[in-house]
Amino acid sequence: MIDKAAAQLKSDGWTIVEATGFIQLVGPLWERTANGEHEFALVTQDKHHNRRGLVQGGVLMTFADRTCGMTARYVSGKPTLATIQLDTHFVEAGKIGETLISRPRLVRSTRSLIFITTEITVETRCIAMASGVFKILRSE
User: Are 30 and 49 in contact (CB under 8 A)?
Assistant: First the structure.
């Protein structure tokens, strides 16, 4: 099922996001730009399940944090940011094997902070909503 979902994403213009560390364990994450907006996808696998056999809430939070953070980097042009707040609302359970989609959008950007929000969806179902605040850091 995962190979079929990956093939569908590729045919729809998605590419895998290069990742290392923790996010590599969660992914692969997929990315594309549609109508000038960044979109991200995650095909849920058995490794993402909780004790009830559904998608673990921490996976949803990690996906929201990563996709909002990447979008903050894209819109700011700044390479180094840190999440300083992430609020998540779980709306409905995600099922293993479903493809999660995140379409983050900029709410506001200041000289030092970027505010981003996203909905994580599966087809027309909203699975979670998240809002994040990201601090622009000095380049190291």
Answer: no
pLDDT, tens digit, 9 for 90 and up, residues 100-129: 999 999 999 999 999 999 999 999 999 999
- Please report, for the chain, how many H helices and E strands are present, in that order: 3, 8
Is residue 130 a contact partner of residue 89, using CB atoms and an 8 Å limit? yes
* Contacts within 8 Å (CB) and 24+ apart, 112-117: 112/136, 113/84, 114/72, 114/75, 114/76, 114/81, 116/68, 116/69, 116/71, 116/72, 117/68
Length of the chain: 140
d(CA 2, CA 87): 29
Please calculate the CA angle 69-99-42 and round it to the nearest 5 degrees.
35
Range 2-136: architecture per CATH: Roll (3.10)
Q: What is the pTM of this model?
A: 0.92
